[in-house]
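[agent] plan:
  1. take the single chain provided in the ticket
  2. run structure prediction with default settings
  3. attach structure tokens to the ticket
  4. add a short note for the reviewer (M.T.)
[agent] executing step 1
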Amino acid sequence: MLALKINTGLIECGTDEAGRGCLAGPVTAAAVILPEDFSHPWLNDSKQLSAKKRAHLRQIIIEESVSYAVAHVMMKDIDRLNILNASIKAMHQAIKALSERPEFIAVDGNRFKPFGSIPHLCVVKGDAKYQHIAAASILAKTTRDAYMQQLDLLHPEYGWRQNQGYPTKAHRAAIAAFGATTYHRMSFRLLADE
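[agent] step 2 finished; step 3 output follows
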């Protein structure tokens, strides 16, 4: 069972992102404040869960969280800022959009920039340790996956419904055959070295 949060007695949000390693589409972050009595046996890092369990948990998190928000940072910003800074920007946007201001921020990973004067802690593999970070990872992934399914309708040849923009062999073969779209990240190595 994951711990609820790091500090008892503080309004604490967890934040995480999805889509950092993708060749196409936005990087998407979520921030979540869970109630003090929250618990769910399935809650874990979104990568450890089936799509069906993620969808089920998404509804529970949306209905039961004190506050949640999700933000996309798009391809041009990723190319301009680099993926780390774009990921942090997405997290900041999600935290800013929360209806309740957190007193502490728990961040998945090892890099973050201060959000105003609110203290934070980076937790490596935090989405497998704390419920609010795991909840944020689920909202980020499910929101981004849904966005990539919409983009797949515009460009079905890249297989985004299946690969979500990640660098699969099929995705790279489609880029080689059809070229890049406006949804691709031009600062990324889109084609594997021959």
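[agent] step 4 note for reviewer: Residues 12-178 form a domain with the Nucleotidyltransferase; domain 5 fold (CATH 3.30.420.10).
[agent] ticket updated
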